Amino acid sequence: MKKIVVIGGSAAGAKAASKARRLDEFADITIIQKSPELSMAACGYPYYIGGVFNDRRQLLCTPAGVIRDPTFFQKAKNIKALVETEVRAIDRNARQVHCRDLKNGTEQTIAYDRLVIATGAVAVKPPIPGINLAGITTLLTMADTDYLRAVRDAGEVKNAVIVGGGLIGVEVCEALQSSGIQVTLVEAMDQVLNFLDWDLAKLVENHMRSQGAQVLTGVGVSAFIGDNGRLTGVQLADGKTIDCGLAVLAVGVRPNSGLAREAGLSIGECGGITVNQYLQTSDPAIYAAGDCTEIPSRITRKPVFAPMGDLANLAGRVVGENIVVGNTVTFPGTAHTAICKVFQFTAGSTGLSEQAAEKSGLRNYTTVVNASPDKPGFMGARILISKLLVDEHQQILGYQCVGLGDVSRQIATAAMAVQAKLTLAETVHADLPYAPPFSPAIDHFITAGHIMENKLQGRMTGIRVREVWEKLQAGEKLFLLDGRNPDEYEEMHLGVGEHLIPLGTLRSRLDELPADKAAEIICFCKISLRGYEVECILRAHGYTNVKVMEGGIVAWPYPRKR
Amino acid sequence: MKKIVVIGGSAAGAKAASKARRLDEFADITIIQKSPELSMAACGYPYYIGGVFNDRRQLLCTPAGVIRDPTFFQKAKNIKALVETEVRAIDRNARQVHCRDLKNGTEQTIAYDRLVIATGAVAVKPPIPGINLAGITTLLTMADTDYLRAVRDAGEVKNAVIVGGGLIGVEVCEALQSSGIQVTLVEAMDQVLNFLDWDLAKLVENHMRSQGAQVLTGVGVSAFIGDNGRLTGVQLADGKTIDCGLAVLAVGVRPNSGLAREAGLSIGECGGITVNQYLQTSDPAIYAAGDCTEIPSRITRKPVFAPMGDLANLAGRVVGENIVVGNTVTFPGTAHTAICKVFQFTAGSTGLSEQAAEKSGLRNYTTVVNASPDKPGFMGARILISKLLVDEHQQILGYQCVGLGDVSRQIATAAMAVQAKLTLAETVHADLPYAPPFSPAIDHFITAGHIMENKLQGRMTGIRVREVWEKLQAGEKLFLLDGRNPDEYEEMHLGVGEHLIPLGTLRSRLDELPADKAAEIICFCKISLRGYEVECILRAHGYTNVKVMEGGIVAWPYPRKR
């Protein structure tokens, strides 16, 4: 009878144990879990905190409504789950773990044939003065969740500061702001959600502001201010202070790999446990899965830290199989796919962003920004703004998308393209599910591909909104051409000195353009589709320095008129 | 100056002309369109008929709200659009088309260097007695749409019959039923939506019934009954009659390829114009795109008739490029992707269904049915039921999905897998966008892959609901084991003599199973996830003939208790 011990009973650990049981009815399987709960739906914490649902049990129960407690694991899966029990050390020579019951202090030693480490992540706590004041929390555990939900329910805190604008920071921002607490999110980097590039992240920040949240980027927190041991405010690096009764530290997590390190297992450069393709550690009897490990990027092949719930579950399943039947299943790693609800917006990404490509040393890539609807106008279209990256072989490197519309389908589609290493030519005629309730006749992702084709073939010259803005700030002489109709212009326009020449009148109004055919002309419209048609016409008429402002007005994150 | 003539100004034709213009500002481009409208959003007709939106102009206008009439085409695109003008003949030797203005009867001849045929499809009208009675219509044109919308708005028709349960039939069924008209849909085949297999189609039909529509399958219409030239009812092949003041013929469309045939162009076995990979017909000066053509299946490589709006748009764009810059872009064909809203359900498919695989002569494929939620329970999970097909090399052949949840993302994901010719192993660890508002930690599509793996590795033996039903009808001795809890059983159960043994009690109740370890035992639960766990336990305890009823209770289309 094989003895399997699993350290950690959240996503990866519980999955590994359950899969092992299905493959071996008679193995002796033990989960050792430090917290009182098992199989927590940790990604759901922000939604419970924000009141999207109110039954805490739902974070812990099966679809049939049964709490996944030790009794459930015993009865349904014949797995012994020791909760509130901490593993103190792994004795690799003796193949034993030493653990302690946190409730009563008793210690015991448990032998294993195969050990699984699934100890997850720990929240980063930077050494900021005042960090231990009451009223400051992270959001990693059920206990953190219970605390934040209690703060919400008590209704006494009127102002909160979120420190950090990653996934958790943004999700908690929505949860608290939607609960009637005035939230200020402070991010030291110059943007939120670093899986997005700056240009798309700024659109997300604007949306967060439109929903009432304050978003400050490019400024760090220098101190937490307190009174009588309780938080009363946050001091920023720029000298400003924000009064608040609650602060949520969301500056990231790191692999909880200390136990493995102490046991002498190999630890990688990201601080995660090193695993091979079978998710086996440097000790063949020990496997690891989830946030405590580092895994390969499917794009760059380099090891990365990818603390994502879906990957933890998939990896746990792989481990469950390999510990029972031997190394048969390989885990390919992460494609850097992420998605996040941000109030009415959704923001998602797969593959490499431009920033990530730069960081990986890739240079010969091309990007385009595409703004276009997620379905036909008559079905209540909502604009999506996306960015596509291809490498020098025109292979799809990455895709990001934000907006009010169906981002989830966009990212799922692109994630498959990225993972299948498809080229642009292999995606632009993809036969995707089309009917008016679900997409426009030409899907938004395919439209992004079409724009990329135009750009790579030299039919379109793009310019980023940021570059246009910087040129304007520098006082450069530009001829900005808005190709829309007067009524559209009235409704919304940039107000940066642009000329309104509706596309339908352009051919008869070429005399209003600069006499110098080499003058820089920047064309756009709401989404820059007509902007591109304007470019085609002007080029044909001999203008040599015409550019399309990619994404058009809806991709413009700066102040605009109306 | 290149002379381009496009016959047909709906999806493919308008797209080809517009793309050609962007690539050649000075070409002479003419669209000849039989109907008064141009660039109609034909896939939107059912939603206008059903009152999802009420402004007819929205079917015809740009996102900026401008009607795409001849003035628009002239001004914005410098394209001459002749509407209500019919092409009578193509003179290939002289490179001319002869056409007639249907408003005043004047005829003219227009020369071309490149001709595009985009004449679309015509509705099949079977020779049923009474078919010309007033009150019977197809749904293909704006005129049909206006008629049906007027019937809806008049509110006089109380009962309608839809003849045909394809995409259009089902969409019109929803439109009319939602408008307060009692609809009976009659389909001669034994299921609706033939892009689905029978087992999933039956679930769609049950949903349609739950929304008030009558659905009759396996019975044809033998006659339309009239009074004074007006429809009063429909007589079915089984002798029954249905009173109705409206009948919609939706028994399919065929390629409108008569003009091409008369011009001596090659026509394929599906009746569509034959085109090469550049969408060029048998005459190199003539291209064709959209519903009038037949195109290759990306799966079987055989030519098929695929009258889909998205493919027409993509093909039109390819033609627009090839007629201007020479044959540079190839069109890969269809992956058989389809999606359809059916009241609260969505039904979609990509690649081959089991029926389509059989029809194509493929035999060595494996299927699984997966029922599981589209997101976590606490986010308002809705069950999806899907069916995955892989071939003998474990390449993904096809995927269908129906249910209340997000089917669109499912089919988009699978469509990319099918088109990239990914294998099961390449999809089961796909890094898809996960956050609780969008999916469960392990995506439904990946779960289908996991079940397939279990099946192919001999860890799970599946049995279809239909097979279980047929065994029960034949009086076979089966031990049906429902592995749920008593409260779940009370809420809903099959009531076919099954034994309730909750999974959590099973290991201590093995003595309640048949003494004969070779007895046929069929395990299930609501979605057959616990059904599978039951199978694992029973097999380990020596039972040799254990099967899992795939999809569980939610995939059971037959009457059940509660």
TrEMBL record, chains A, B:
Keywords: FAD, Flavoprotein, Oxidoreductase, Redox-active center. Its cofactor is FAD. Signal peptide: none annotated. The keyword S-adenosyl-L-methionine does not apply. Residues 474-562 form the Rhodanese domain. InterPro entries: FAD-bd_OxRdtase, FAD/NAD-bd_sf, FAD/NAD-binding_dom, FAD/NAD-linked_Rdtase_dimer_sf, Pyr_nucl-diS_OxRdtase_dimer, Rhodanese-like_dom, Rhodanese-like_dom_sf. GO terms for molecular function: oxidoreductase activity. The keyword Transcription does not apply. It comes from the Bacteria. Belongs to the class-III pyridine nucleotide-disulfide oxidoreductase family. This is FAD-dependent oxidoreductase.
